[in-house]
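check this one:
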Amino acid sequence: MQIHKLKDILPSELAGSISCGSDFSACFQRSWRDFMVFEFQTCVSSLDMAWELLGEGEMLPGDSVLCLEQTGGRGRMRRHWSSPRGNIYAALKLPVPNSPEMNRMLSIIVGYSFLRALMARGMEAFLKWPNDLVVNAGKAGGILIEEKGGIIMAGIGLNLKAMPDFTELRENRLMEPVHLSRAWPGADPLSAWAELVYTGQFWYDNILCNYSLIDFISEVKPYLWLVHQKVRVAQDNHVLEGCLKGLDESGGIILDCSGHIQHVYSGTLVL
């Protein structure tokens, strides 16, 4: 394991580039300069390692784990997450929102925060409900939120250079995986993660401290993938079809099913 301070691995041109609130102290109660990155060559999963370090008293809000290779990464609904070298497999300890309403939106808030970090890189990025990052109409990464005993960890996977094996993908997937080697040439996991965690946590802090729930929902809507389009949502043994109208105040999506409005809180967008 190597331990880095974020300020030591962040590209110098980025430090201080966010002019408003870049100290992050309002929500995190500490400066970003003190955030730690625990780097591992190999681990079972970044989330498992983060929980283990937390148990040893090593993880504070803003600290993160970066694994260069995972042997047992997991995605949503406990699906196996393929983890070839060259990508980002990280876990981040986040402060808990003071607002119960914002807490229900946590996956969307984290996804949007990292979407803004990709946009700062010049990428056209979108958020596919409930937890995927979309670049160039393909899945570039995903967010997985875990909560234990009032503590929040966010798992973040991003395809910098490689993609999952197609044999591991769902047959009815709505999009193909993509990697960011053209959009982010030369990126290595450590420096790329430093940049993402710096910009992403600025947005997390900014949203929780300065946005109302209604303002945040309005902010996200233009970046919600397939908004105002017909979609299909697979739920257990049935499929809902309708026009995706946006997000509701609990983090679900609003579907207009031939004039009947449905609020959907679980499921997967499919072909």
In short: Helices lie at 6-9, 25-28, 46-55, 100-104, 106-120, 189-210, 213-220.
